[in-house]
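Thread: shikimate-3-phosphate complex, take 2
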Amino acid sequence: MPVASMKPSVTDKSQISAHIVAHRSASIKGRARVPGDKSISHRALLIGLLTVGETSIEGILEGEDVLATARACKQFGAAIARNSPGSWRVSGVGIGSLLEPTSALDFGNSGTGVRLAMGVAAGHPIEVVFDGDASLRRRPMRRVLEPIMRMGAEVLEQIDGARLPVRLKGARDPIPIQYETPVPSAQVKSAVLFCALAAPGETIVIEREATRDHTERMLRAFGATIGIERYSEHGRRIVLQGRPELAPQKLRVPADPSSAAFPLVAALVVPDSDLVLEGMLANPLRTGLVETLKEMGASIEELDRREENGEPIVDLRMRHSSLRGVEVPASRAPSMIDEYPVLAVAASFAAGTTIMRGLSELRVKESDRLAAVAAGLAANGVAYEIAGDNLIVHGNGRVAGGGEVETHMDHRIAMSFLVMGLASEKPVMIDDASFVATSFPDFTGLMRKLGADFR
Ligand code: S3P
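Output below.
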C-alpha cells in the first residue's frame, strides 16, 4: 500500500477513563517504585534483538510505547517471552540478520521507538514501513533519516517534510561516518550508533550538548568497543567500532526518573507529604530536575546509592517544601528535557519567578509542550510568559486551579496537570488521561495509594 493512503494508528486505551479531576489532597506519603525506565527498556529490546542468544530483562516498562517496540522486534525476527510482569526474555537474531517485516511497523505514540528502530533497520538490506498515531505523524523524522541516508539507507516514500509513514530501504553495505548531531538528541545519536553496528570500522558521533548515554552504556555492557571523550564545553565525541560480537546479558531496568518526577513534585507541593521513591535511575544525564528542585529549596535526600548494569541508582526521600523561583540554564535542558512540564507546575507553587531557558526541543515532543504547558498554566490562573525559547513562570506560592487542561495526546502534559490539581485551591481537570498508558500505565493507581485524590 502506498504510504500516503495509510491511516494513523489508534492504540488501545480502552482500560482507562478519559477525564480525570485532581482534587486538593491531604498528603502524599509512603514508599513507591515507579515503573522501569522507558529509554532503557526500548534499548534493552533493540540491543537484545541485535544479540545472538537470550537476554533477560527484569523490570522492563510494560507501557504502550515499549510494547510497540517489542512488536517491532518480533517482526524483525526476535522471539520475546514474558515470564511474569516485567520479566522478559529476548532471543535475538544478531547484527546483519534482521528479517524483513511483513507489514508496517506501528509505533503508536513513541518517538523513541520509531527513531531507534529506524537506525537498526538502516543497517540491514530490508524494506520497512514505519508508522504511528496522529501525534507521532506530526513529529520530525528528517533528523534521523538524514544521517542514516548518509550511511546508505534509502527513503523510498515519505509524507511532506519527512513525516511518517516512511518507507525505508536499509543499506546492504552500511558506510561508517563521522556525524555531528544538529540538535541535542539521544534518539538521533542512538539511531546512528545502531546503524553503525552493521558498518565496518569506526563511526564517530559528536554532540555539542551531551544527551542521555544509555545506548553507549548498554552497548559497552554487551561487549561493543565504544570510546567516549569530552568535546568542547558540554559535548561528547563517541567512537563505535562496527560489527561487534554482542553477548547476551541479564539486565535490570532501574525506575524511570522521568516518571518519578510526578510523585516527586506532588510530594513537594502537597502539604504534610513525606515520600520515598526506590531504585531510581541517577544517571547524571537524567538528573537535571532533581538538581533544579534542590536549587529551588526542595527537601530531597539521597538514602542509598548503588550501581546496576553500569547505571547509578538511588532511593530518594522528599518532603513538602517551600519552593522559590530560580533560573534554569539552557545547558541543563538535555538532562531534564522531559521534565519541564512538571517543573513548570513546581514553579507555579514557588514564590518568585522561574526562568527556564533553551526549550526549543519542547515544541517537537508528543505535543508542542511549550504551547500545551502555557495553555494549562493560563487555564489555572498561573502568570507566565514565553519569550523566544524561554518559559518564565511567575509563582506566588499558591495556584488557583479550576481549569480544564487539554492534553494533546501527551502523557506528560496529562500527569503534570494532575499533579497541579493535588495542591491547587480548586480542582484541575484533564480532558484525556488515556495517553498516560504510554509510559506510566498505573499512574493513577500508584498516586491514589500515596494519597492523591483523583476522581
Ligand atoms: C529519549 C530522548 C529524548 C526524550 C525521549 C526519550 C531517548 O528525546 O525526550 O523521551 O530515549 O533517547 P530526544 O532525543 O528527541 O531529545
